[in-house]
Design brief:
With 170 residues, the chain is an alpha+beta fold. It has 4 helices and 9 strands, in the order E-E-H-E-E-E-E-H-E-E-E-H-H. The protein starts with a strand and ends with a helix.
Length: 170
C-alpha cells in the first residue's frame, strides 16, 4: 500500500500531496510530527527503528515520529502512531514546531515541517516489530552523552531536535 505525505510551504500551508518515498527522494517539505514520552522518573522513551525501515534502520530516535494522513491533524496522527508502533496512547501537548532538512542515506532527504509533542506514560509498551526493533528509557543527561560519543547511532532529526530544542522537551 502506497503512503502519501502532505506537502507544505514554510507557513505550513498545504501545497499538495506526494507518495512518501518520492517526497524523500526529491527532498520536498512535508508535514511530520515527533513525540517525546517521559516516565515519572523523568526518563525519555526512545526507540530503535526496525531493521526493515527504508531509511535510518536500527538507529535510535525519539519515542515515535511519522506523518499525518490527508484530512488528519498532526495530533490525531500522533495518537494513531503511538498505538500502531508502541501499543499505547496518552495525553500529548504540542511544545513547538520547526523546519529541518537532513540527508538520511540512500539518496533520501528528510525535509519536514515537524510538530513536536510531549507526553507522560508509565505502563507497558507493546512493540510493533514492523516499526520498532527495541525500546529503552534513558535520562536526558545520559542521552546527551551517548549522542556526543556515538552520533551515528541516532537519526538525523532526533539529533537536531535534541541539540536545538532540548530545553523545550523537558
Amino acid at each position: 500500500m502506497r503512503e502519501y505525505v502532505i506537502l507544505v510551504n514554510e507557513n505550513d500551508e498545504v501545497t499538495g500531496e506526494m507518495e512518501k518515498q518520492e517526497a524523500h527522494v526529491k527532498g520536498l517539505l512535508h508535514r511530520a510530527f515527533s513525540i517525546f514520552i517521559f516516565n515519572n522518573k523523568k526518563e525519555l522513551l526512545i526507540q530503535q527503528r526496525a531493521k526493515a525501515k527504508y531509511h535510518s534502520p536500527l538507529q535510535w530516535t525519539n519515542t515515535c515520529c511519522s506523518h499525518p494522513k490527508k484530512g488528519e491533524t498532526c495530533l490525531e496522527a500522533a495518537h494513531r502512531r503511538l498505538q500502531e508502533e508502541l501499543g499505547f496512547d496518552c495525553i500529548l501537548s504540542e511544545k513547538f514546531h520547526f523546519i529541518y532538512k537532513a540527508k538520511v542515506g540512500g539518496g533520501l532527504t528528510e525535509h519536514e515541517f515537524d510538530r513536536v509533542f510531549v507526553g507522560h506514560y508509565d505502563n507497558d509498551v507493546e512493540l510493533n516489530p514492523l516499526e520498532v526493533e527495541s525500546i529503552r528509557w534513558i535520562t536526558l543527561s545520559d542521552l546527551k552523552k551517548e549522542i556526543a560519543h556515538h552520533p551515528e547511532n541516532f537519526t538525523e532529526w532526533f539529533k537536531i531536535i535534541f541539540d536545538k530544542y532540548e530545553n523545550y522537551i523537558e
